[in-house]
User: Which sequence fits this backbone?
C-alpha cells in the first residue's frame, strides 16, 4: 500500500523538476522569437526583457528588411550555408564510409597502423593547425571559396571510426557469395553493402550536417567577401564594437534556427540514434 | 585467377586511399609546416629563422591567462556536464518518469542552435540594463544588477559555463541514455530483491557500467573544452575586459590572424597540442590504460 504512493510521489516530483527545466531550457528561444518582432533598438536598450517580449506593436519589419531590402545579404548567406551543408555532408559521408568500411572488412598491410591513426586524430583538435592550413589555402588559391571551407573537414576521423564500427557488423559471407558471382570489390561496396550501410549514412549525415551548418572558426578565416559568407559568419558581422545591428541579427538568428528545429522534430529518431550509436560503440 | 587475388589485394587500398591522402594534406604536412613556422618570423615577403624566440615570447601573462581560462573551463565543464546529464538520464530512464521522450527532445533542442545565435541570446539575457531578464530576476532576491559581460573574471566564466550547460546538457543526456539501454535490467531486479535503495543501485550498478560512455564524453569534453574559442569570441567579439574570456585558441586567432604573427601563433598551437596530449594521458591513466594487462 505504501509502495505505490511513494512511487507516485517520486514520479510527480520528477515531472515537476523536468517541467521547470524544460521552461528554463526553451525560454531563451521563445524570447528570441518574440523579440524578433520588435524593433532592434528595444534590445539595444533593454536587453531581452519580459516587458519587451510581451509588448504590443509586433510586426514583421525586421524580416522584410533582412530578406527583401535592396542589397540584402542574408539570402546569399542562406544560399551559401545550404550549398556548403549539402556538399560537405555528401562528400564527408561518402569518403569516410569508404575508409571505415575498408578498415573494417579487409585484412591488409598497414590496417592496424591506419586504425590507430584514426583513433589518435580523434583526440587532436584541428584548431592547432589553422595557421598552416590558412597558409596552404592561400597558396592553393582556395581563400574565399566553398572548397576552402569544406576541405579540412571531409575526412572527419570521428565519422571514419563510426563507419568502421558499423561495418564490423556487416555480414561478410555476402561478400564471398558476390565474389563467386563475379562482382568486383568496388561493386560489392556499392551494390551489396551500401544498402546495409543506410542507417549509418543517415546518422552521420545528420551529425556532419549539423557540424557544417554551425561551423564557425574556419569559415571565419577562409571567407572574405560578404556575399560568400555563411549564415554564422554573416550574423557575426552584425555584432560590431560600434553597436550591433539587432534588427537583422535577431531575425537572421531566428531564420537560421527554425529550419533546424523543424528538421529535428521530423527526424528525431535518426538524430538520436545517430548520436547514440557513435557513443555506445565508441 | 591470379589477377583476381591481385585485385583483392589492392582493393583495400582503394578504400583507404582518401584517408591516406588527407592524412598527408590535412594533418601531416600542416603539422610539419607549423613546427617549422614556430621557429620563424614570418613577414609577408620574407621569412627568417629566429630559433626559439617565439617560444620564449610565450612567457607572457596574457598567454598564461588564456591557458588558465581554457583549463579552468575544461575542468568545470567536465565536472558539471558529466554528473548532471548522467543523473538526468537515469531519471528519464527510470520507470517513475512520465513523458521521457518529450523531455529528452526538449533538452536536446539547444544543441541545434548555432553558437552565434546562442551567444547572442546570452548577451541579451545577461545584458547590463536593469530591465534585462537576469538582472530583473536577481532583483527579486535583492541582488544589484550586474554588468555580466564586462564584470569580473568570475562573471565571464559563469557566462561561458551557462552557455556550455545550455547547449551540451541535452546531447550528453542522449549519450548516457544510450549507455543505459545496454545495462541488463535483470541486474536491477536482482538488486531490488536484495533490498538495494535507488541511490545504491545507481552507484553500484549504473555508474560502473556506464564507464565506456563516461570515457567517451570525457574525451570529447576535453577536446571541446581546451579548443573552445567560438563562445568567447561571440560574447566579447574577441576583446574581453582584462582578457577574462580569452582562451588558447583565442590567443592563436589574435596573434596569428589579427596581429599577423604566424610564427608565434604556430608556437601557441603546438603548446595547445602538448596540453591536449597531457590531458588525454591523464584520462588514459585513470582508465587504467597503463596498468599491466588492463583491457581497453
Assistant:
Amino acid at each position: 500500500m505504501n509502495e505505490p504512493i511513494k512511487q507516485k510521489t517520486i514520479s510527480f516530483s520528477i515531472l515537476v523538476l523536468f517541467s521547470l527545466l524544460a521552461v528554463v531550457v526553451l525560454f531563451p528561444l521563445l524570447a528570441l522569437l518574440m523579440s524578433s518582432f520588435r524593433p532592434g533598438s528595444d534590445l539595444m536598450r533593454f536587453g531581452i526583457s519580459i516587458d519587451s517580449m510581451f509588448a504590443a506593436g509586433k510586426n514583421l519589419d525586421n524580416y522584410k528588411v533582412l530578406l527583401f531590402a535592396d542589397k540584402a545579404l542574408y539570402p546569399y548567406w542562406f544560399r551559401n550555408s545550404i550549398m556548403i551543408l549539402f556538399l560537405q555532408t555528401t562528400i564527408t559521408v561518402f569518403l569516410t564510409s569508404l575508409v571505415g568500411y575498408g578498415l573494417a572488412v579487409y585484412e591488409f598491410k598497414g590496417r592496424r597502423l591506419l586504425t590507430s591513426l584514426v583513433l589518435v586524430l580523434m583526440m587532436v583538435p584541428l584548431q592547432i593547425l589553422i595557421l598552416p592550413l590558412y597558409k596552404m589555402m592561400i597558396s592553393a588559391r582556395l581563400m574565399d571559396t566553398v572548397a576552402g571551407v569544406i576541405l579540412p573537414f571531409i575526412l572527419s576521423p570521428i565519422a571514419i571510426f563510426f563507419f568502421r564500427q558499423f561495418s564490423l557488423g556487416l555480414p561478410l559471407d555476402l561478400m564471398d557469395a558476390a565474389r563467386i558471382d563475379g562482382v568486383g570489390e568496388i561493386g560489392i561496396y556499392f551494390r551489396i553493402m551500401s544498402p546495409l550501410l543506410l542507417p549509418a549514412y543517415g546518422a552521420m549525415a545528420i551529425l556532419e550536417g549539423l557540424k557544417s551548418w554551425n561551423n564557425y572558426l574556419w569559415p571565419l578565416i577562409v571567407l572574405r567577401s560578404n556575399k560568400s559568407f555563411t549564415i554564422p559568419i554573416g550574423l557575426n558581422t552584425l555584432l560590431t564594437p560600434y553597436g550591433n545591428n539587432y534588427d537583422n541579427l535577431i531575425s537572421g538568428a531566428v531564420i537560421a534556427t527554425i529550419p533546424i528545429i523543424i528538421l529535428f522534430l521530423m527526424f528525431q529518431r535518426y538524430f538520436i540514434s545517430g548520436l547514440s550509436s557513435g557513443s555506445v560503440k565508441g | 585467377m591470379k589477377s583476381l587475388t591481385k585485385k583483392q589485394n589492392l582493393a583495400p587500398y582503394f578504400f583507404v586511399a582518401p584517408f591516406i591522402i588527407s592524412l598527408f594534406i590535412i594533418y601531416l604536412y600542416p603539422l610539419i609546416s607549423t613546427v617549422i613556422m614556430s621557429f620563424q618570423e614570418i613577414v609577408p615577403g620574407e621569412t627568417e629563422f629566429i630559433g626559439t624566440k617565439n617560444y620564449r615570447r610565450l612567457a607572457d601573462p596574457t598567454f598564461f591567462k588564456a591557458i588558465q581560462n581554457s583549463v579552468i573551463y575544461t575542468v568545470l565543464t567536465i565536472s558539471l556536464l558529466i554528473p548532471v546529464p548522467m543523473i538526468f538520464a537515469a531519471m528519464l530512464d527510470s520507470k517513475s518518469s512520465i513523458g521521457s521522450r518529450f523531455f529528452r527532445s526538449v533538452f536536446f533542442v539547444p544543441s541545434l542552435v548555432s553558437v552565434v545565435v546562442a551567444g547572442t541570446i546570452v548577451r541579451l539575457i545577461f545584458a547590463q540594463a536593469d530591465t534585462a531578464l537576469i538582472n530583473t530576476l536577481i532583483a527579486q532576491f535583492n541582488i544589484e544588477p550586474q554588468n555580466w559581460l564586462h564584470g569580473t573574471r568570475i562573471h565571464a566564466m559563469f557566462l561561458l559555463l551557462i552557455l556550455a550547460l545550455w547547449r551540451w546538457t541535452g546531447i550528453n543526456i542522449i549519450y548516457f541514455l544510450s549507455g543505459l539501454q545496454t545495462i541488463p535490467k535483470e541486474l536491477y531486479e536482482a538488486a531490488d530483491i536484495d533490498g538495494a535503495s535507488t541511490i545504491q543501485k545507481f552507484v553500484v550498478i549504473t555508474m560502473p557500467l556506464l564507464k565506456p560512455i563516461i570515457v567517451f564524453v570525457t574525451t570529447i569534453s576535453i577536446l571541446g573544452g581546451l579548443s573552445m574559442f567560438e563562445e568567447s569570441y561571440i560574447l566579447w567579439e574577441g576583446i574581453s575586459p582584462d582578457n577574462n574570456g580569452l582562451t588558447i585558441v583565442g590567443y592563436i586567432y589574435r596573434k596569428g590572424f589579427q596581429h599577423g604573427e604566424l610564427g608565434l601563433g604556430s608556437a601557441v598551437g603546438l603548446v595547445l597540442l602538448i596540453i591536449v596530449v597531457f590531458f588525454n594521458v591523464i584520462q588514459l591513466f585513470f582508465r587504467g590504460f597503463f596498468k599491466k594487462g588492463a583491457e581497453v
Remarks:
- Residues 257 and 265 of chain B are 8 Å apart (CA to CA).
